[in-house]
Amino acid sequence: MTFKRVFGIVTDSVGIGEASDAKDFGDVGADTLGHIGDFYKGNFKVPNLQKMGLSNIRPENPIEGVPVAEAPTGYFGKMHEISVGKDSMDGHWEMMGLPVLEPLGFFPQGFPQELIDKLEKFSGRHIIVNKPYSGTDVIHDYGEHQMETGDLIVYTSGDSVLQIAAHEDVIPLEELYKICEYARSITIDKPYRIGRIIARPYVGPDKDHFTRTANRHDFALEPTDETDMDRLKQLAWTCLPLERSTISSLAMALRMAFILNQTMTGWTRRLKTPKKTFTASALRTWWTLTPCTATVVILKATVKP
Fold it and tell me: In DSSP terms, which residues pair with 284 in a beta bridge?
C-alpha cells in the first residue's frame, strides 16, 4: 500500500504503564492513562483512540472507560526506549531514529556555581533560586522579587533542562533569548551537556496573577547524527513540523517548518494543515514537554488519491 501523506502525532507524558527501568527514575507504579481512567470512574472518554486500539495495548487490564476494541482501526503497541534517560528530548530523538546513548546532564541539587557565575557575568544580572522547582510555583514564589530587582530566576526539573524565567515588562524577550542562547553555547559538552535551555517569560501584576506566556522558547542540543528527518529530506519528501516552540532542532533538517505556540492561532494552523494538498509529505506534531517512562504511540496513515 502506498501512502501519499503520513501524519505522526506525539503526546508526551501520556504513559500507559511503567517501563522495566522505572525503578531507576523513581517511577515505579507510573500509569498515567490508567490513573486518569480510575479517577474518572468510567467517565474517561477518548472514542477515537478507543476505536484505534488504545486499551488493546493492555487487554488484561484495560483503561477504565476505554473498552478493548473488537476490530481496532489502527496498529497499537507499547514501546520501550533504549535511550539512557527519560528526558523528553531523549524520546523525541529516538523516535526519529537517533537514540541517546550518552546520558544528559541532570542537576537535582541545582547548577554548579561556576556555571551560575558565567551566566551572571554575561547577563549583568544576579541569579536567584537555582534548584528544582515547578514552573508555576517558582514565579509565584519569586516573581515579585524578580520584578523588583531585575534578577534572573534560574531553575531546573526532572528533565535535563536549565530554565530562565523573567517578567516580560522587566526583561525584554530579546534580552532573555540572548541570555538563553549564551547559556546554550556553554552547556553543549561535558561537564554540563544540558538537553534544553528554556526561556520562560511571564506576565501579570502580582504573584496571584502571574501567567506564563506563549513566548516560551527552547534551545535544544543539536542532533549528534543523522535522523529520520534527514533521511526523508534525502528522499525529496517535504516535512512539515507543527511545533509548540523550537523544542526540536530536528527542524533544522526540514525543508518547510511552522513554529507555533499554544495560542488559538497555532492550533488553528495545526487543524487546517491536514486539509491542504501536498505530495509525499510528513507531518510531526509535538504537544507537551514533560517526560514519561512509557509512552503510547499509535500510528495511522490514510490513503489520499
Answer: 8, 241
Superfamily of domain 5-104+223-286: Alkaline Phosphatase, subunit A (3.40.720.10)
Single pTM value for the model: 0.72
- pLDDT(287) > 70: no
CB of 269 within 8 A of CB of 257? Answer: no
DSSP annotation of 163 reads: E
CB 85 within 8 A of CB 160: yes
Q: In whole angstroms, what is the distance from residue 199 CA to residue 248 CA? A: 14
Query: pLDDT tens, 58-83?
Result: 999 999 999 999 999 999 988 888 88
Angle (deg, nearest 10), helices 173-185 and 113-123: 140
Domain boundaries, the chain: 5-104+223-286, 113-220
Distance CA 303, CA 67 (A): 27
CATH of domain 113-220: 3.30.70.1250
